[in-house]
Amino acid sequence: MSLGTAFHVATAPLNRKQQWREWSGYFAASAYADAHDIEYNAIREAAALIDVSPLYKYVVGGPDAARLVDRVITRDATKLTPGRVIYTAWCDEHGKVIDDGTVHALDDGTFRWTAADPQMRWLRMNAAGLDVTVDDDTERTAAVALQGPQSRAVLEAATGESFADLGYFRRRPSAFRVGRRKVRIDVSRTGYTGDLGYELWVDAGQAVALWEALWAAGQDHAIRPAGMLALDVVRLEAGLILLEVDYTSARHAMNPEQNYSPFEIGLGRLVSFDKANFVGRLALEREQRAGGPARRLVGLQLDWYGIEALFTAQSLPPAISPVVDRSPRPVFVGGRQVGRTTSLGWSPILKQAIALASVPPSHEAVGSKLDVEWTVEGRRGRVPATVVALPFLDLERKRA
């Protein structure tokens, strides 16, 4: 049975059609407005609030906390000094990705670890022999993403301090006022939208007060709540992967085809072999010595005229769903299937149909030509597609 998050008292009245979905046992809004494109526009043109509390959150502490982090993740955790945040993957002993998420270095020497799936058992298993504690903070800490070009202005209005100096993937403590008292929050320059944005971490008991403070501060900046449908569109534009959609966790894989190394899902850049030993390192080194994996994640731009032609053949006007299609579609070269799309949708800002796809290395180069299966009225056809660089949308303001 799903439960409301700590923000539910504030978010439920805003959900006009009561469109909810389940996210890790919590209610998550699919869309607050009649159509999610309004929320998409808020993320890209103004400011939006997205409840991301269902993320699993752990606090890793103790004298050997940094050693545990470095033992598990593929990146060099020795560079994770207080105030920094890193995005990373972590693997099993076969070098296959279990999950991806962020690790925040807090000012007291502990680390906040976020994940899409539960990780407590895995972290504690790998803590053997270390003087370390791992606490599940999921219910104690609520999180809201404040995203969009006006997000900094909203945050500064709510807290009364400047955030112009908080760099990309950095964090620091802050506070907002509730009457005469100050409520502490932690602010990280992170998000899942590919835009300027922040994620705010607060004691669950103060979540509604935080939402109300941000909502009041955002009224001069066209702020809106945004749900999962809008978030899915912006994360696709940003070329960001989603667990159990663009790859399967090694923990859930039913066969070898469902296991993915970081180099198969665009996370090879996050693997450092110039660091202390980490789980999966030997397997990943063997994979690289053998020339890398047989699959690579690429971005595809689909030809609109190809889509239009399939509809015209059925005497229909062309149409494409505004919702990201998470079902796999075959990808062909000539008459041979070589891969599949994992996420496909329409980018309102790029005015293009785009997709993430898994293809062989021989077809990962930018400019490679492929075909994507497209069905109209039960008739299967193919749409020409071109491999393009990721991310599809690279906004300078997300790093500014």
Helices and strands in order:
Blueprint: H1 8-11, E1 19-23, E2 26-31, H2 37-45, E3 47-51, E4 56-61, H3 65-72, E5 85-91, E6 97-105, E7 111-115, H4 120-125, E8 133-136, E9 141-147, H5 151-159, E10 171-178, E11 181-188, E12 197-203, H6 207-217, E13 223-225, H7 228-237, H8 281-289, E14 296-302, H9 304-312, E15 329-333, E16 336-347, E17 352-359, E18 369-376, E19 379-388
Parallel strand pairs: 3-13
Antiparallel strand pairs: 1-2, 3-9, 4-7, 4-8, 5-6, 6-7, 9-12, 10-11, 11-12, 14-17, 14-19, 15-16, 15-18, 16-17, 18-19
Helix pairs in contact: 2-7, 5-6
CATH level 1 class label of the domain at 8-55 and 139-226: Alpha Beta
Estimate the strand proportion.
25-35%
Low-confidence stretches: none
Main-sheet strand order equals: 10-11-12-9-3-13
Give helix % range: 10-25%
**CATH evolutionary superfamily of the domain at 8-55 and 139-226:** Probable tRNA modification gtpase trme, domain 1
Number of helical runs? Answer: 9
The pLDDT mean sits at 97
In CATH, the topology of the domain at 8-55 and 139-226 is named Gyrase A, domain 2
